[in-house]
Amino acid sequence: MPQPPAALPAPSAQAPGPLHAEGLVQLLTPSGERVGDPAWDPWVEHLDAAALRGLYRDMVLVRRFDTEATALQRQGELALFAQALGQEAAQVGSGRALAPQDHVFPSYREHGVAHTRGVDLADVLRLFRGVDHGGWDPVAHGFHLYTLVIGSHTLHAVGYAMGVQRDGDVGTGDASRDTAVVTYFGDGATAQGDVSEALVFAAVNRAPVVLFCQNNQWAISEPTTRQAVVPIADRAPGFGVPSVRVDGNDVLATYAVTAAALERARSGGGPTFVEAFTYRMGAHTTSDDPSRYRSADEEQHWRDRDPIDRLRRHLEATGELPDAFVDDLAHEADALGERVRTAVRAMGRPEAASMFEHVYATPHAGVDADRAAYERFEAAMEGTGGPTSTTTGTTTGMTTGTTGGHAR
Length: 408
Fold this sequence. Notes:
The chain is 40% helix and 8% strand.
């Protein structure tokens, strides 16, 4: 059998693999020590102690929301919930780097980004309760509805970015006009063809988009090592998209890297791929049991690198975390938890007929025909004394948990 040419390198058994921490951008160590980096320090030098406390507040509130939502699912108030536990720094740091006119395309775990965009976190749970497909206005918040189909929204984001580009809202020099688009996805999504296609379109069109991968090291029960043999970020340059790896548990570094990528996009420099190396401290969703596929030692290793603790240690060491602030934040978190519980329990069942609304922006003959058929069915059920969703929410053959809301 012929041998490959000598010029072709043999695979190296010593390759560091996709989970190594070498070369990660880091501005805060796990112990909270501020480390200087001349390439990235300028992007965070305007963040004073008050701004750092603001980032800390964001992360604490998002975690409280995560805890409350998980408890509500366990109590039967939610059908499912996808935790963001441990990923607060990646989400809050990147979210706070966005400008008001920027637009976000999330997957289904970006609760921290939703918070930074002014979305009421209680509205996020409308999806997980099965009331509708999203309880917020994407245009008003610059934050699209959650997407459950893995990786598909990366194409939506690039398409939107190409539209922004064609509208002339890139590279004008007007800071209030120039727009960037960000799409969030996990390491598992990079194994989907949609993400590769998004990278192709982003590269050849120099689209003003940041492709933000939260590498939390697990695609449900499949580790990143089963998805790649090199760091996830190394894939992007092959498409012509520059990439950077950042410590995703470092809110300052994440802010800096994202701010730089956004500025590049807004100025007409094209796309950037960001890999935020973090860890999913909770389950994939509340239907998952991570103890079946990962060890307690691994989980403890990452608890010791908790993103909230990291910033807290830094603020304490610099004397910038007064007791009054901590006490007020604890009360605010309690109030958020109570408000989320009350809001979720007050969410009623949607009318089954609402499934025909918000499907298309204009009338559609197929939808109209389906609506008419459904109305005839309802009338027949009422005439025979059968069950109807308009009174009980249990129409035969209908699933109220998937009705209403917006089309994706």
